[in-house]
Design brief:
Helices cover about 10% and strands about 50% of the residues. The protein is built from 2 helices and 16 strands.
Length: about 240
């Protein structure tokens, strides 16, 4: 992975909710463990499992797949779409969600389902629509979970990401704890489909996280002592 690409990926995920700063948890209060595809695609999907309960003191944790990012939209604007599983401080359990940022706008969070059991894999995907360039949809367990979303200038330009993250809620505190499993990561080679397993990616890591790759299309992402202990007890 080139240093330039590492900086681009790290900034893309770190800036989704806040500007970089010297806080206790990662960059801008964020830490990550995941992968970034090395080539452009028209969608990404994965089975994401929240393996154990979260330890969220402030802010949130999430495991998601998505495309786009800060500076990726028209004229260098922020533009992205992502879907995954989230957990928040003071809220029991985990939720299925998607988030959209349109050029010139703010991130819009949408909850699809609440109280998802830990240990249950959920298939999430974002996919550009067939015969509708720059229009995207979110899919959950094979069914559409969002209305069509227009993201101008996105057609054929974005490299997908699959990652877990922690955000400290701008408290300057310690990172939250999570353990996610990502399986059957696939990318779409044409709008509307033509899926195949992800073959090449670069790691996205932070000093406080652990990323355990099984294949290019499967990994664990962990943060926090409890998650690290559980990860050490797993067979792969």
């Amino acid at each position: 992975m080139s240093p330039q690409r590492l900086i681009v990926i790290a900034f893309a995920v770190a800036a989704l909710f806040g500007a970089p700063s010297a806080l206790a948890c990662g960059v801008g209060g964020y830490s990550y463990a995941g992968i970034g595809a090395t080539s452009h695609a028209y969608g990404i999907g994965a089975s994401v499992t929240p393996v154990t309960g979260f330890n969220v003191a402030n802010g949130h944790v999430a495991g998601w797949v998505g495309v786009g990012g800060p500076g990726e939209g028209p004229g260098g604007s922020d533009e992205w779409i992502q879907a995954g599983l989230s957990g928040f401080a003071g809220v029991a359990g985990t939720s299925i969600y998607y988030e959209v940022t349109r050029a010139g706008g703010n991130p819009a969070y949408h909850q699809v389902a609440a109280s998802v059991p830990f240990g249950k894999p959920i298939r999430v995907a974002v996919l550009e629509m067939h015969s509708r360039p720059n229009w995207w949809r979110v899919w959950v367990n094979g069914s559409p979970a969002s209305a069509p979303v227009e993201l101008p200038g996105s057609h054929g330009r974005w490299s997908p990401i699959a990652t877990a993250e922690s955000w400290d809620g701008n408290t300057g505190g310690a990172c939250n704890g999570f353990l996610y499993r990502f399986d059957r990561i696939s990318v779409a080679h044409a709008p509307g489909g033509d899926w195949s397993p992800l073959r090449a990616s670069d790691p996205i890591t932070s000093s406080s996280t652990k990323l355990r790759l099984r294949t290019t299309a499967s990994f664990y992402a962990a943060e926090g002592d409890a998650a690290f202990r559980t990860l050490a007890s797993l067979s792969w």
